[in-house]
Structures are given as C-alpha cells and as structure tokens.
Amino acid sequence: MPADEPADEPARDPARDPAGGDEYGATAAALLPLLGGAGNVASVAACMTRLRVEVRERSLVRADALRALPGVLGLVEDAESFQIVLGPGTVARVAPRLERLVAAEGLTGNDLTGESLAGRGAALRAERGARNATPFKLLLRRVAHIFVPLIPALIGCGIVAGLAGLLANLRLAPALVPALTAIAGGFMSLIAVFVGYQTAKEFGGTPVLGGAVAAVVVHPGVGQVSAFGLELSPGQGGVLGALGAALLAVYVEKGCRRVVPEAVDVLVTPFVTVLLPGLVTLYGLMYAAGAVSGAIGHFADWLLSSGGAAAGFVLGGLFLPLVMLGLHQALIPIHTTLIAEQGHTVLLPILAMAGAGQVGAALAVYVRLSHNTSVRRVIRSALPAGVLGIGEPLIYGVSLPLGRPFVTACVGGAFGGGLVGLFHQLGASCGATAIGPSGWALFPLLTGGQGPWRAVAVYGAGLLAGYAVGFAATYFFGVSREMAAAEAAEKEAATG
To answer: Who is most buried in 27, 168, 276, 384, counting CB within 10 A?
Structure first.
C-alpha cells in the first residue's frame, strides 16, 4: 500500500500543486508521461523499494526512457505491472505524489478517451494475462500482497522483543521487561486476525469477516474442542490456518451473495460466512495447518543441522536472483510461520548473506573502476541501502547492468550463507525474531540457542565473509575485458 507522506511536510493544495512542488514531485511528474499518461495508469502502490504501477496498455509505456530517468535505479516488468526501483524512503514519497497527479489530470479532462482506452487495455491485458501469467506466479503475487503490509508491525515488535531480551539478560530494568514483552507479543498473538483480514481483502471478500473467522485460530476456547481423538490448542496452525480459514470464508461469502435474497443478505451472509468456515477451521483446517507448520519448522532445523554448510551455501547463493525477480516475497509466509512456531526464523540470517556479497562486489567495482565517475556515483548512492540489506538499488544500478558482478555477488552470498549454516550445524544457531530488515539492520533482531550475543557474532562473521568473498571474486573475476579497457582509457585520458 502507498505510504503516507511525512507528517511534518507543509500542507499543499492538490488542485494547484498535485505533484508536490519538490524533488519527489518532480520525479512523479517525470514518470507520468513515460507511463503513458494519467489515463493509462490503473493503480499505483509502493513496497519497501519499488513503485508498482499497473497500466492499461503496455505499448504506451516507454520502458527505456524510464530506466534512463535520473533517480530510477532499475525497472522490472511482469505480466501485471511495471516495478520502478527508486530505493527506500524515496518510493514512499513519490507514490502519493504520482497518485495525486493521476487523479488531478483525470479531473482536467485528460481521460476524454479513457473509456475506449480502458476497454482496449482491458482486452489486451486479459489476453496477455492468459498467455503469460501462470497460476503459480499469480499465487505468489497474492501471497505477497497479504503479508507485505504486516512487515512494519513485525519489525517494530521484533525490535521491542530484542530489547526486552537484552534487558532481561543484563538484568536491567526488571520492572520494564514484562511491559516490553507484552508490547512485543501483542501483535504476534493476534497475527492470525491480521492475516485473515488481509486474505479476505486480497481475494475479494469482506475483510472483517475474514479476520473474524481467522480469529478462531487464536481464541483460548479452542482448547475445549477435540476431533479425531486429538485436542486443539490456541494458535495451532498459526498463519497458515488463518490464511486457509479466511480464504474459505471468501468463497462461502461469494456463494451466499449469489443465492441469498437481498432482503435478508445483511443477516444471512455474515452468519453463514462465519459459521461454516469456523466449523471447518476447528474440525479440519487447524489440524492440517498445524501439521504443515510443524513440518516447516522440523525441516528447517533438519536442513541446517544435517547439512548446514552446504544448505547455507545454496540458499545464500540463490537468493539474489529471487530478489531480482521479486520472488523473495513468497518466502514471507515461511518466515512468519517459523517465527510463530519457534520464536525466530533461522533462514533469514542465511538469506541476508546475499546482500553482503552484493556490497562486497560493489566495493570491488568501485575500486577497480576508479576513473569511471558515473558508476562510482551510482555505487555511492546505493551502497548505504545495500549495507542495510536493501539490495535492489545495487542490483539494478550496478551489478546486474554490468553482468559479471552479479554472479560474483552471488558467490559472496554463498560463502557467507555457508559460514552461517556451518555454525548452525556446530550448534551455534542464529535466527531473526522478525522479517523485513537485513544487513546491519538485522542485528537488533537476532537471537539463538546460545543467546543473542553468540547469534550476533555468528551473523557478523557471515557478513564479513560475504563482504570479503564478494569483493575478492569481483575484483579478480568480475571485471570484463571491455570494462578494464574502458577504465584504462579513462585513466590515460585523466593523466594526459
């Protein structure tokens, strides 16, 4: 969802100044014509680093010009949208300005041909969607839309939980620790409700009904329910059970809307939508989702305990391509399930090593291309975000366009992940109590079987390995002959 503007910005009249009158407004104003104008923009949304724009007709979008626009770090195209990489902070400010521009131009008559354009675009979009969009890709997109809005709360509560653990270990402020624990645990105890709400919203149901059905999963009264000779426990099935319950509620609600007379719809539909999925959840879904959630936790532990170094090497090496394709968000439910089941996810610190390899690779390019001012300027602007674990600016601004550094960055991530996996195999586990941050920003969220300090040491060692290997691999193998020749020419020209 688009982020709100900072509260301290002065109020503006959208009718007179829809772009915002600042550098972010200028960026939005420059983007709009390249996207085909206001009539071609169907929706605008922002994630942590990308501006996601759905358009009605792709042929009107000038992709090459978008990539070349100052401030744009990269462009990702898929069957449904254009994802414009702007970087953290910037995207949250550009998105609302672009939305205001679209609305303002639509009101001034620029959508005079909007109906015909929308009809033609809808037909083309349907044809393209049937040809290119697979059920798996569509499912990943919807799953990401469910969980991404929950990330800020997971981050905030995770940091509070880390602070509570630190104070408890240091035996400081003992009266404050219970309060911090309650604050941190409040969201996690009700996360099923939020997942249910978001699921119903994403799949076209009434969000509050999805949340109501999913709330059954965490209600204390489920401990008195039994089936198949087994008793339930509150929270059994976690986010997966909540997701399944809300999804079932959506389909029941849609069925009721089709058959229930309008005169009694306001009474019958909510009643049936809560009752039937609620019973199915209690007598089926919670057991099945609990088994799946438990299996995910056992598999993650087994994977790292039995083949920690090898598993970490593979996971750390393959994560950058997933980020490049935007598929990394499909891992959010797995991380959330591990956090709900075990209190932390052991996978995130390993996957975060991909960012370390990327930072090392970027530093090596910076050193090798010492006379290429344009590349070095991009690296300087994107490196702080990379150190904090936000990889898209470096991916689309440096490593991927240059080619080889992207591969060598993956090598650095593989070695960093392998080292963290090896420590896990030796008994020094490292996990994150929340998802979202990476790089140095993950330090406050770390925990492990031998305490947070050991987890911090393991994670720090992995980062250093990722930096070092990513740098070395890129320095010696990541610069092509063409890049080296261009650098030599620049050096000769500079020395005269």
So the answer is: 27
> Which one from 47, 157, 410, 430 is the annotated catalytic residue?
47
Domains and CATH numbers, the chain: 23-133 (3.30.1360.60), 148-299 (no CATH), 315-495 (no CATH)
Q: Phi first, then psi: what are they for 306, rounded to 5°?
A: -95, -35
Phi, psi of 50 (to 5 degrees): -115, 145
Token duo for residue 178 = 């219970």
Task: Reply yes or no on whether 256 is catalytic.
Answer: no
pLDDT band at 328 (very low <50, low <70, confident <90, very high): confident
Across-strand partners of 446? 432
- Contacts of 212 by beta carbon, 8 Å cutoff, 6+ apart: 196, 249, 274
For the CA atoms of 37, 41, 47, 49, the dihedral, rounded to the nearest 10 degrees, stands at -20
Q: State which amino acid sits at residue 29.
A: A
- If phi > 0 it is left, if psi is from -120 to 50 it is alpha, else beta; for residue 229 that is left
Largest CA distance in the chain: 87
Tell me which residue of 417, 431, 423 sits closest to 342, measured CA to CA: 431
Angle at 152 between CA 447 and CA 470, to 5 degrees: 60
DSSP 21: S
Nearest to 413 by CA among 328, 319, 322: 319
Residue appearing with tokens 């997966």: 240
Q: Compute the chain's Rg from CA coordinates.
A: 25
Q: Concatenated DSSP letters for 30-99? A: HHHHHTT-GGGEEEEEE-SSEEEEEES-GGG--HHHHHHSTT--EEEE-SS-EEEE--TTHHHHHHHHHH
CA distance 53 to 39: 13
pLDDT tens for each residue of 16-73: 455 555 788 888 889 989 998 888 888 888 776 788 898 888 888 888 888 888 888 8
pTM: 0.69
Report the candidate in 149, 50, 34, 54 with the shortest Cα–Cα distance to residue 94.
50
> What count of Cα atoms within 13 Å lies in the side-chain half-sphere of residue 398?
33
Tokens 């598929």, located at residue: 327
Closest CA to 465 of 345, 317, 318, 325: 317
381 close to 393: Cβ distance less than 8 angstroms: yes
> Measured between alpha carbons, how far is residue 117 from residues 37, 113, 130, 213, 493 in Å?
11, 6, 20, 40, 52
